[in-house]
Each structure stands twice: as structure tokens, then as C-alpha cells.
Design goal:
This protein has 233 residues and is an alpha/beta fold. It has one domain (4-229): Rossmann fold. Helices cover 36% and strands 18% of the residues. Helix 2 (68-81) runs parallel beside helix 4 (115-122). The chain is globular, with a radius of gyration of 16 Å. The two termini are 22 Å apart.
């Protein structure tokens, strides 16, 4: 499966956004991938290729292209409002993917990791399905309108291992019951295979590292979730 560099057109107040895309032949459902706080890295491109290999049309916008600090500030504001430039960049990525692959927007899901996991919940209203992975949880009101949700967390990640319970509590008033998985022997970022030694040193309580068994088990759950909520036909 080959990927390609693309540019998502500007729209509704958001700038043109570079990204990486891969399309399964004949794909009838799609995914927008939101990167970790490390930005677009080779492991995020590998996530795109993994998902395309599973039958999806996939695009990962590079939200940090306009500046890491500007994007982080914008997304943290979105955690309180559900709105912002970065949120619109994700929607523009969905529009691009829908047009490129001829897929209905309702058949496109949103998946994010770390920073992207937080983003997926803050921006998830109106998406076909949402996968949040070891991210912060917005208020109930911000998540109003969100559809099916799956959350994955590492049991060794002291900063985020309890976020699944928080997600369940905050979605309860909306009548949404998330599918939550916590992997006892995994740390932060276990679903991607990047190596960030500085991050491991600075955030030791998160137990970042390589957890191949948990990674593969987590992906089985996520793909099964999208198979149920974004059926191929």
C-alpha cells in the first residue's frame, strides 16, 4: 500500500493543510487520523498505511504546519467549545477525503492519539465514529452530538490510565456508552511504534515505550469497532 503527500484545501476559516493519504482500492469508508503531540512523524504515516491496508481511505492532516504552539492553544480552547481552526482543518480533511474517495461523510470516522485523542473527542460531534486513544476528556457539553466512541488506554500510563472511566462518566448524560479498553502492561503511545527518547525521559510517569502485544491487541479492537460502526457495504 502506497501513500502520498497531499494538500487539503482551505475552507471555512481554516488554512490549506498538508497531509499524508492512502486509499484502499474500492474503499467505501474512510478515516481521518490526528497525530500525537510529536506532530506528523513516520509512525503516523505507518498508521495511515495500516488503516488503508484494512480497507479504508485514510488521510492524516498535519495540524502543526501552522505552528505547534498556535495549534495546541487552539485545540485546548476547542476542549471548552468544540470549535476552532484546528477543528475545521479536520472537517476540511473529511471533505477532501469524501470527494477524493467518493465516500459519504457519514461513512468517515475520526481517530486520534495522545494530543489527537483529546482532539478526537473535542471535535468528534457529527463524525461517523470516533476512536480516542490516551487523550484528555472534554466536558459533556462539548461532546454533545458525538456518535459511537472507543477509547484505549495503557495501565502503566499514570497520567491517562483513568481517563476511560472519566470518558464513560461524561458521556453518560448524552446516552453514549463508550467501548473502553485498558491494557494493564502498556504505557502511553502504545498503539504507535515511534521512538521518542526525550519524551520518555521528560514524561517518565507515562511509561512510554514499545508494547507490540498491546499494540496489536488494541488495533484488533479499534478495527472491529470501525467495522461495526462504519460498515463497508
Amino acid at each position: 500500500m502506497d501513500g502520498r503527500e497531499i494538500t487539503i484545501p482551505a475552507g471555512d476559516g481554516a488554512p490549506a493543510t498538508p497531509g499524508f493519504a492512502a486509499m484502499a482500492e474500492g474503499a467505501k469508508r474512510g478515516l481521518v487520523v490526528i497525530h500525537e503531540i510529536f506532530g506528523r512523524q513516520p509512525e503516523i504515516d505507518r498508521v495511515v498505511l495500516r488503516l488503508a491496508g484494512a480497507g479504508f481511505a485514510v488521510v492524516a492532516p498535519d495540524l502543526f504546519h501552522r505552528g505547534r504552539v498556535a495549534c495546541l492553544v487552539d485545540v485546548f480552547r476547542a476542549m471548552k467549545s468544540g470549535r476552532g481552526t484546528a477543528v475545521q482543518q479536520g472537517r476540511n480533511a473529511r471533505i477532501w477525503l469524501s470527494n477524493e474517495a467518493r465516500i459519504a461523510p457519514s461513512q468517515i470516522g475520526l481517530i486520534g492519539f495522545c494530543f489527537g485523542g483529546m482532539y478526537a473527542l473535542a471535535a468528534g460531534a457529527g463524525w461517523g465514529a470516533v476512536s480516542t486513544n490516551y487523550g484528555m476528556v472534554p466536558t459533556t457539553e462539548v461532546m454533545r452530538g458525538i456518535g459511537p466512541v472507543i477509547g484505549c488506554y495503557g495501565g502503566r500510563d499514570k497520567s491517562f490510565r483513568d481517563k476511560g472511566a472519566e470518558l464513560t462518566r461524561r458521556l453518560a448524560p448524552l446516552g453514549v456508552v463508550p467501548e473502553v479498553h485498558t491494557f494493564p502492561d502498556a504505557g502511553h503511545s502504545f498503539l504507535t511504534d515511534g521512538d521518542h527518547p526525550v519524551g520518555r525521559f521528560l514524561f517518565r510517569s507515562m511509561a512510554m515505550g514499545d508494547y507490540p502485544e498491546a499494540r496489536e491487541e488494541g488495533w484488533k479492537h479499534i478495527l472491529a469497532f470501525f467495522d461495526r460502526h462504519l460498515p463497508a457495504g
